[in-house]
Amino acid sequence: DYQITGGTGFVGYAVVVRALRAGYRVRLAIRAESDVEKFKAAPSCQPYLSHIEFALVKDMTVERAFDEALQDVSYVIHVASPMPGPDWPEPLEDTVIKPAIEGSLGLLYSAVKIPSVKRIVITSSATVIMTNDENRIHDGLSNPSCTGARLTPSLETTSAELPSGPISDAYTAYHVSKVLAYRAVQDFVRNKSLQFTVINLFPSFAVGRHELATSPEMINAPGSSNIVPLAPILGDGMPFPVPGITVHVNDVATAHVAALDPKIEGNQDFVLTSGGIEGIKWDDAKEIVRRRFPEEVQKGSLPLKGSTEARRIKVDGSKAERVLGFRYKRFEEQIVDLVRHYLDALEKQRKEN
Known about the structure:
There is one protein chain. By secondary structure, the protein is α/β, with parallel strands linked by helices. The protein is built from 12 helices and 13 strands. The protein has helices at residues 10-21, 34-41, 92-112, 153-160, 170-191, 216-219, 227-234, 249-258, 284-292, 294-299, 318-324, 331-352; strands spanning 2-5, 26-30, 52-56, 75-78, 119-123, 137-138, 197-203, 205-207, 242-243, 246-248, 268-272, 310-311, 314-315. The strands form 4 sheets. Strands 3-2-1-4-5-7-11 form a 7-stranded parallel sheet, sandwiched between helices. A two-stranded parallel sheet has the order 6-13. Helix 3 (92-112) runs parallel beside helix 5 (170-191) and helix 9 (284-292) crosses helix 12 (331-352). The radius of gyration is 20 Å and the shape is globular. The relative contact order is 0.14.
């Protein structure tokens, strides 16, 4: 059996669907009983409802929160982590950073007590391994975390740059939460004798369809990584440079499930990003949309009036392709899938109104 946390989120839901289609039985950790109906109503889950069970974990920061949910589970995928938006409740240290750290550690402490657990895959973020060095190739291959020797050089640099005072913006809180949660996981693995192995995945900006986001507003909501590629297509663009690194959400899901394979060596990290070392330019999405959706552009559904500067950073995700055995979808396919998702929701909304 597989335990998955964060299954209602963008990446988490894609992981759930990928695991079900691969034939696995899935136990979903949910925060509220109402989440059950979301999965039962989702078209992609309906053929597999007999392979889904639910475990209520109302607060993953509570001690022993996962003890019952992990009973008899062999493999765990931990996606759940706060993804704050502009109006996220403050203080962000308590509502974003602490839950990210305590949720990961709580899961590990529970897993130690469950002999059946063999591997845990944890969703981190490419923000953890990135530095401001434009000439450095950020690939995770220099990460000696699998040996427990020390933290990665890039993580040491990043952690040295963490703000010392109160955190006031959601992006900084998210970045800090991912860095500190990763460090906490590495310290845990290094200092304990475990019956399971841990693999960390570092996805860049995930792009694509999210079946549980059923309205244009939900698809383009603050806190979703889809808001970044949609910004030059629908609005004014992002107000600040954004690293030009993306990955299709389905590729992220494929990597999570593939990383559970016992043939894959444990206690290693994988960066997940497409586009090669040079990455992408966000404004290229406008040309893709202009070419692939000319009628919708002409009607004004896709105004293409925004612009987002792509911050240049070299990130290499090729190790994941080689070891986990898949090929990344190109930026154009990511954009086409996302825009079709948005247009479908827009048409549904128009019919309902």
